[in-house]
Amino acid sequence: MAETMRVMGATGDGVEMTELPKPTPGRGEVRVKVIASAVNAGEEKVISGDFVGRFLHAKSSPLVLGWDVAGTVDTVGDGVTDIDEGAAVWGHLAYSPSQKQGAFAEYVTSPRASVAAKPDDVPYQVAAAAATVAMTSLQSLRDLGELGEGGQVLIIGAGGGIGSVAVGIGKRLGGHVTGVCSTKDVERVEALGADEVIDRKKADVLDAGSAYDVIFDTPAVSSFGRCAKALRAGGTYVTTLPDAALVMGMARALFTSKRCRFVQVASKRADLELVGGWLSDGLEVPIDSCHKIADLGSALKRQLDRGRIGRVVVDVAEGWPS
Ligand SMILES: NC(=O)c1ccc[n+]([C@@H]2O[C@H](COP(=O)([O-])OP(=O)(O)OC[C@H]3O[C@@H](n4cnc5c(N)ncnc54)[C@H](OP(=O)(O)O)[C@@H]3O)[C@@H](O)[C@H]2O)c1
Q1: 77-134: per-residue pLDDT in tens?
Q2: Which pLDDT value is given to residue 266?
Q3: Are residues 146 and 187 in the same domain?
Q4: Is 242 touching ligand 1 by the criterion CB < 6 Å?
Q5: Distance between CA atoms of 104 and 279, rounded to whole angstroms?
Q6: Residue owning the nearest CA to atom 42 of ligand 1
Q7: Is residue 97 part of a domain?
Q8: Is residue 161 lining ligand 1, measured as CB closer than 6 Å?
């Protein structure tokens, strides 16, 4: 009989534990025993039937979500020779309309190229909290924004999941970081290392003239049209959502020297290794709360709470419903 594993599936009105066959790693893949995961904005988008949610996960039943993975290699598929069973790893499961797996499960499989060794001094909970938001930040600022030494970057939503870690990553890329957040987050964003902080409740965020090389709109609220004036010639606006404003922004950017880009996060071993080193070295990923997997329902609710400060982590290895 096929071996099974426990999973937490989202139902219309909550979550419930069920069992599924343990996944088998294909060629070039590893199977990871999940120790910790975290909640992202994506869960609610899929559960609520939001249009964007269709691009993040398949409508599978049971609906097992959770894209952040930190755990240990349980077994390796054919062709994987550079990592041993038992190795601690971390990564992000791909956002995809065909994604049927989720890390709110005892095991997931992943391409070997999409996970990296977790540094020993980085707790599983921190690695899980960092995976999606740190990859998104690094790829937005470095790859799309081409942020380098001395570059001016404006991070909108600097108190949020992506924004908080983007502040530290922007600094590590050599940028001069201005964070935009609500009054309640100003001190926290300063403590994360932002060179300047704009309280969006008190000041016009885009009133600085053509000041920025990169504007990273983490909550996708400002649009290229609104931000273009605040970008220097050759500057880049990066958004996180593929919406109508993005399409209009890309069309408008064709007629200027400024660029409008959309980030589609990808889990890449080299990027995870780079960020893993930064986490060892003190890159902060604020954690709001840790929840047992049995309390996944509370974790999903906490993610939506306006008072949340940082990432909502889920302990998957322990704490299953009895
Ligand atoms: N494209 C990708 O690959 C990718 C990857 C990961 C996530 N995402 C998406 O990225 C988005 C952000 O994710 P997250 O985890 O950072 O969410 P989050 O933790 O909820 O943070 C969003 C932040 O934006 C701020 N904000 C909300 N409305 C704002 C406004 N009108 N002006 C300025 N700031 C505002 C919020 O703070 P205040 O309201 O308190 O100011 C909050 O700090 C989500 O939609 C998620 O689905 C995309």
Answers
A1: 999 999 999 999 999 999 999 999 999 999 999 999 999 999 999 999 999 999 999 9
A2: 98
A3: yes
A4: no
A5: 23
A6: 160
A7: yes
A8: yes
The span from the CA of 132 to the CA of 267, in Å, is: 8
Per-residue pLDDT at 203 exceeds 90:
no
**297 CA → ligand 1 middle, Å:** 21
Structural domain containing residue 28: 4-118+286-315
* pTM over the 0.90 mark: yes
Query: Is residue 84 included in any domain, yes or no?
Result: yes
Reported confidence tier of residue 292, pLDDT bands at 50, 70, 90: very high
Q: Domain holding 245: CATH number?
A: 3.40.50.720
Look at the chain and report how many structural domains it folds into: 2
CATH number for position 62: 3.90.180.10
Tokens of 276: 């893993």
Is pLDDT of 215 > 80?
yes
Residue 1, pLDDT > 70, answer: no
- Reduced 3-state DSSP string for 52-74: HHHHCCCCCCCECCCCEEEEEEE
Query: Is 182 close to ligand 1, i.e. is its CB under 6 Å away?
Result: yes
Q: How far is the CA of 117 from the centre of ligand 1 (A)?
A: 28
The full DSSP string for 77-108 is -TT--SS-TT-EEEEEPPP-TT----SSBSEE
Taken as a whole, the chain contains a residue count of 322
CA 252/CA 254 separation, integer angstroms: 5
Burial of 309: CB neighbours in 10 Å, binned 0-12, 13-18, 19+: middle
Question: For residue 136, which atom of ligand 1 is closest to its CA?
Answer: 5
Average pLDDT taken over every residue of the chain: 96
94 shares its domain with 167: no
240 in contact with ligand 1, CB cutoff 6 A: yes
pLDDT tens digits, one per residue of 150-193: 999 999 999 999 999 999 999 999 999 999 999 999 999 999 99
Task: State in Å: Cα 219 to ligand 1 middle.
Answer: 3
Whether 21 and 82 map to the same domain: the answer is: yes
Atom of ligand 1 nearest to the CA of 159: 43
Shared-domain flag, residues 32 and 87: yes
